[in-house]
Amino acid sequence: MSNFNLQAVLKRIQPVSEERLNSVQERIDRQAKPVGSLGRLEEFSRRYVAISGREDIRKKRIYTFAGDHGVAAEGVSAFPAEVTPQMVYNFIEGGAAVNALANHAGAEVRVVDMGVNHDFAGLPGLIDRKVAMGTSNIATGPAMSREQALAALQSGIELAAQAKADGVDLLGTGDMGIANTTPSAAIVASFTGLTAVQVTHRGTGIDDVALAQKIAVIRRALEMNHPDPADPLDVLAKVGGFEIAGIAGLVLGSAAEGLPVVVDGFISTAGALVASELHPHVRDYIFAAHQSVEIGHRHMLQRIEQQPILDLNLRLGEGTGAALAMTLVEAGLRVLREVLTFDAAGVTEGAER
After folding, report:
1. Annotated catalytic, 349?
2. What range defines the domain where residue 110 resides?
3. Which one of 155, 176, 226, 288 is CB 3.0 to 4.6 Å from 129, fit for a cystine?
4. Does 82 reside within a domain?
5. Would the pTM count as exceeding 0.85?
6. For 73-100, how does the pLDDT look when each residue is reduced to its tens digit (9 = 90+)?
7. Is residue 21 part of a domain?
8. What span, in angstroms and rounded, lies between the C-alpha atoms of 225 and 16?
């Protein structure tokens, strides 16, 4: 850890050029169609080109970060903790929903063990960045040490740099970790000052009794740990998760590398929120994939000033929404490249208006 300097990474993050954004929009406005008629597709292409300097996508990659949570012991999830490693094996074998949707989108999936409570014994295809065998229980103390939070952030930042070196033009985030909606809700409550009730939902589908228990656990975690919203690393260490920290690092690294990143649902946005609190310009590089069913998600999106691309009642995670949203960013770019201007098409300007 001694050679990792978070501040040096943060200093590399620049705002996306307004001049570039305007230049792309001017070109879109000259295309043979009524101005603004392709709605948000125009926004996607404008932002992608301004961020990356490219008009096409050579390679798309989704990193699915996995980690276990000590708070699972509090009965906050409908599934037992052993499902986390079982799903990691499923991702590696290509049998999960994110694999199917990534195949549809033409994206590759890379699975990262950030802190699964299982020994994968050098499982081929798994990226081993394990910080510890799961976080501690946030209902009884901090999730992790500050040093562990930094280590997890560093891993995500390094993966973004690796993706850039590999010629990836569009990144996506995904997650796997039983009970991880609990720390995610605690994170959004920490930064917004909203109550546990306002940000907590059913996760994997818990009943009313378990939901009440989950709200009580989050309230207790916040009261016990006192996460400091002015210190995003403190929030991450006290009530976060290893996979959330990895996602935060990937989003930070994407901004530092000038890579657009499609952020999946509730858990991924918790990571993106931490990254955005660490540096205000991070949000310029984020595409919010979808509006999750989780009630805390819209508060996160408001905080990072992002409008979701899709609203399909998704609540799976893994990177499923990110894979779907990537196809729409790509659609916007195809329109940018292939639709002729009024002059080139020989169409009288204003005739369609």
Report:
1. no
2. 59-328
3. 155
4. yes
5. yes
6. 999 999 999 999 999 999 999 999 999 9
7. no
8. 36
